[in-house]
Amino acid sequence: MKNLISKAFILLTVAVLLSCSSKKQGVDNNADKAFSNFESVFLDAYWKQYPSSAINAGYGKYYENLVIPDSTSFAGNISFSKQWLDSLNKISINKLDISNQISYKIIKNQLESDSWYTSVFKQQEWDASVYNIASDCDNILSQPYAPLNERLIILTKHIEHAVDFYRAAFKMLHKPTKEHIALAIQQNLGGLSVFGKALNDSINASKLTEAEKKQLHVNIDKTVKAINGYVDALKALTTTKGVQYRDFRIGKKLFSEKFGYDLVTDFTPEQLYEKANADKKQYTEKMYRIAVSVWNKYYKGQPQPKDTILLIQKVLDKIQLQHRQPKDYFSYLTNQVHLLKKFIVEKNLFDFDTVTPPIKVRLMPEYERGITLASADFTPPYLKQGSTYFNIDDLTAYEPKKAESALREYNDYSSQILAIHEAVPGHCVQGIYNNKKSPDVVRSVFQNGAMVEGWAVYCEEMMVENGWDNHSPEIEMILFKWRLRELANVLIDYDLQCLNKSKEEITRILIHECFQTEAQAAEKYNRATVSQVQLCSYYAGSTAIKSLREEYKKKMGKNYSLKDFHEKFLSYGSSPVNYIRECMLK
Question: Does the chain have fewer CB atoms within 10 Å around its N or its C terminus?
Answer without folding.
Answer: C
